[in-house]
Amino acid sequence: MADLDLNEKLAALLARAGLGDKNAFATLYDTTKSKLFAVSLRIVRERHIAEEVLQDSFVNIWNNASNYAVAKASPMTWMSAIVRNRSLDIVRRPHLEIQDEEEFFTLNLEDQSLGPQDQLTQGRDVAQVEVCLNGLEADQRQTISLAFFHGLSHSELSTHLNKPLGTIKTHIRRGLLKLKDCLNDHVEYTPQDGGRP
Amino acid sequence: MKHVTPVVRSQLAGEYVLGTMRGGARRRFEQFLKSDYALRAEVARWEADLTPMAERLKPITPPDHVWANIQARIGGANVATAAKTPAASWFDSVKFWRGFGMGAAALATVLLATLVTFRSNVETQDPMMLAVLEDGGNARMVVEQPKSGLLMVKMIKPWKTMADKSMELWVIPKIGAPRSLGVINDDGETKLAMTDMEVRLTDGTVFALTREDRGGSPTGAPTSSVLCKGTIARMPPKTDQNASKKSSSPI
Lengths: 197, 251
Fold this sequence. Notes:
Shape of chain A: globular
Number of helices of chain B: 9
Number of strands of chain A: 0
Distance between the termini of chain B: 69 Å
Radius of gyration of chain A: 17 Å
Oligomer: heterodimer
Number of helices of chain A: 10
Largest sheet of chain B: 5 strands, antiparallel
Mean pLDDT of chain B: 77
Largest sheet of chain A: none
Shape of chain B: elongated
Order of helices and strands of chain A: HHHHHHHHHH
Distance between the termini of chain A: 26 Å
Order of helices and strands of chain B: HHHHHHHEEEEEEHEEEH
Low-confidence stretches of chain B: 80-88, 118-124, 240-251
Strand content of chain B: 15-25%
Structural class of chain A: mainly alpha
């Protein structure tokens, strides 16, 4: 479960940044930059593009910090969503070389036993999402994981997994429905609106 | 979007957050989001569910220039490092310095003159000396002496960081060999304080920066070519408050 202290600290920094406090914004950047850079780099795959994404995202975060609403999303989720959206907006990928899904999880995800610092930056109940993800059929889980972590589009998934586009779409649609059902069974709170920038 | 069923709306929101919705569809969906509160709520639910998974990725530290660029774009003062001088906003601003294309010595001189004219009646201390260090016409660094025994160094456009190298600042006197002023941070701001600063700065005409072995030149003299340099502009010694107010050309 998320460490409330860090979420509260990040929320406070965002609130101060929203009032124009650049020191608070600098601390916010330092605290979150490495996590968010990893999120973008995984999707866009080129460092200089990920750097641009991070720059654009933090300018966006600065400009919209006053719109952030604590009750509606955790600070880390709000910022990650901004970085992911920006990455997905600008990703261009002529050549595709994606690691095997299993290899990806081994190489790129932190241990299940997260250190205190890592637990600090967790949003809500990641473990629950992963339990639900593991409950999907293998094809659905693979397709959804590749889409989420690597930012693959339908046609890229089709090429990479060597399956027809229709099959890919079905895996995603059914996988998402099942994921949602599973998560709803374990729901803790329901955000009303993301306070999107 | 209102005419589609709740299940399909949730489905589309899920695909948007998952990232499989791309290109034109993604842009159209974002248009809908602007005016559709319920759809935003649906997206927020998916984000709360899925996005935290991204935080499981191993952190990767971005290079320092990303922060410098962010600061330049939000028009901000450099706040990444704690060192601060009173009323030093112009000194801090990367954007401010990047805006200049004129020669370093001329720029430093004009700035000192401007400061004397505009700031002498406020309670801030004018710098004793100032230099803008250039590399082929590009301002890369500013060195300011706010008071005796202290130098403030500000990187405007940093070089690539090298793990086994350090940046070393030198003052080149009218006659004689360069004297070291110490190692500075690869980016951001550095405060150099030393008791024999004035001795080292005696007759100094130019500041120069070189890349040396980690921790500074082992020989005490520069061992590599100059990365950037700038002529020092000095403030005339003040006799009283009014003297500086009247002076429009301090050099």
